[in-house]
Design a protein that fits this description.
The complex is a heterodimer of chains A (about 200) and B (about 250). By secondary structure, chain A is mainly α. Chain A has ten helices and no strands. In chain A, helix 3 packs across helix 8, helix 4 crosses helix 5 and helix 5 packs across helix 9. Chain B contains nine helices and five strands. In chain B, strand 4 and strand 5 form a beta hairpin. In chain B, helix 7 runs antiparallel to helix 8. Classes of the chains: A mainly alpha (about 200), B alpha+beta (about 250). At the A-B interface, helix 3, helix 4, helix 5, helix 7 and helix 8 of A face helix 3 and helix 4 of B.
């Protein structure tokens, strides 16, 4: 007995409809990222494009939050995905792909932020006047922007992962390669420093 | 704004992050003195969460992925980590050397048995100065003495002379064997031809003594005395040389 292509497609559509009807929490867990990773490692370059499209915004947000500069963040995102492309065979699958990706993104963005800080240390005053400082968008509270600028890149990374990406403490710990307690302590300290800067208790 | 007690501070953070309006109202009702702090915290948390959206909007459409050629390696050592690694390496090498020294140190009991300062049992009579007892020099562990090698004159030699004066030949043979030779007067002036191989100096001298009628007396201190006379009774007892002179 043979099965035609239409029949097969019809079955797929039926299955998809059935799966969609089941509430999400009762669906079997299925790591699409891992499938894409395996497909890429098997030689399917399109799979990497899908990973890129899926995570570009998140990686850009993390990088933008740490670097506080959209242009630098866009450059950093390209670097981060280049690193991922080159090192995907090292992904050990002990954590989720997204966690591993955030780890790469956070580390590289912090490195870039440190480099940028040193780079701007030696800018001449005339150059600095000519440079147009990136204006924060109007919808963002300027005090928030200033307070974030005054924090260290590490503190910013913690706040971005927690408040923007809404990662759990366990996911933050995995992203920063530390245990949950350390991540919690570091996050609470960063949060407190942010509050103190925001409220003008420290400069 | 005054500092909040730690438990209230934690609660304020939790309520601000959770965003549950009912819980927040309950807090305000229960702790009206901290209502202002809660409102400030809510503003702070909302502000940082809202800061994400403009950041995303500020980027253009999904840019095409263009891998960069010169990207620094994924995990690079920062100077701080490199310095820490150096310190750790130094500490590790120190530890290894230290424990190696401890392992080769003599046991504590051996150290306890070492010589102490001698204690005078009797005090000197009044008016006399006490005799000072010098500290004993701790005996040093000497390396085992090497076994004395046989002197040269007891080792096999090879000697060959032709037409040599007897006295000169004896002196040369003794010199080659490291013997100090003394020749008593009266040794006949003779010219000799000798050839020995694998024979000790003393045996050579004894053999020549039999032939040319003198007696070599081994003094036992590396010297030999040659007397130009022979005790015929002793001749028979002499051990023949391993090599026969030509």
């Amino acid at each position: 007995m043979s099965t035609t292509g239409n029949e097969a497609n019809g079955t797929d559509v039926q299955d998809s409809a059935l799966i969609a009807a089941v509430p999400e929490k009762y669906r079997p867990s299925f790591d699409e990222d891992l499938v894409l990773v395996e497909r890429f490692l098997a030689g399917d370059h399109g799979a990497f494009e899908q990973l890129y499209a899926r995570y570009h915004d998140k990686v850009f947000a993390v990088s933008r939050g740490i670097l506080l500069d959209a242009e630098e963040a866009a450059d950093a995102v390209q670097e981060i995905f280049t690193l991922v492309l080159k090192n995907l065979h090292r992904f050990d699958r002990r954590s989720k792909f997204s966690t591993w990706l955030f780890r790469v993104a956070v580390n590289r963005s912090i490195q870039e932020a440190r480099r940028s800080r040193h780079k701007y240390k030696h800018v001449e005053l005339t150059e600095a006047v000519e440079r147009v400082a990136p204006e924060p968008p109007e919808t963002i509270d300027p005090k928030i922007h200033v307070a974030l600028q005054k924090l260290t890149p590490n503190d910013r990374a913690l706040l971005i992962l927690f408040y923007w990406e809404e990662l759990s403490l366990q996911e933050i710990a995995d992203s920063l390669r530390c245990n949950v307690n350390a991540a919690k302590t570091r996050l609470y300290r960063a949060r407190e420093r942010f509050r103190m800067v925001y409220e003008g208790e420290i400069d | 704004m005054k500092k909040l007690p730690p438990e209230i501070d934690d609660l304020v953070w939790t309520l601000a992050e959770d965003g549950n309006a009912i819980a927040q109202d309950q807090f305000r009702g229960r702790y009206p003195e901290y209502a202002e702090a809660l409102d400030a915290r809510i503003t702070l948390v909302k502000g940082i969460k809202r800061a994400k959206a403009p950041a995303i909007e500020s980027r253009p459409e999904l840019p095409k992925f263009s891998p960069k050629a010169n990207v620094r390696p994924m995990w690079t050592l920062t100077p701080g980590i490199a310095a820490l690694l150096l310190v750790a390496l130094g500490f590790a090498s120190f530890t290894v050397v230290y424990f190696t020294m401890v392992a080769t140190r003599p046991p504590a009991e051996a150290l306890k048995k070492g010589p102490g300062r001698p204690v005078a049992v009797n005090f000197p009579p009044a008016g006399q100065t006490p005799i000072s007892v010098p500290d004993k020099v701790p005996p040093q562990v000497q390396p085992p003495a090497p076994q004395p090698e046989d002197p040269a004159y007891l080792r096999p030699q090879s000697v060959s002379f032709k037409g040599a004066n007897l006295a000169l030949a004896l002196k040369a043979i003794a010199a080659q064997g490291g013997l100090d030779i003394t020749i008593a007067p009266g040794l006949p002036e003779e010219t000799i031809d000798v050839s020995y191989s694998g024979v000790t100096t003393i045996e050579i001298l004894q053999d020549l003594g039999e032939k040319y009628r003198f007696t070599p007396f081994d003094q036992g201190d590396g010297s030999v005395l040659v007397i130009p006379a022979r005790d015929e009774t002793e001749v028979a007892k002499k051990v023949p040389a391993t090599s026969i002179p030509d």
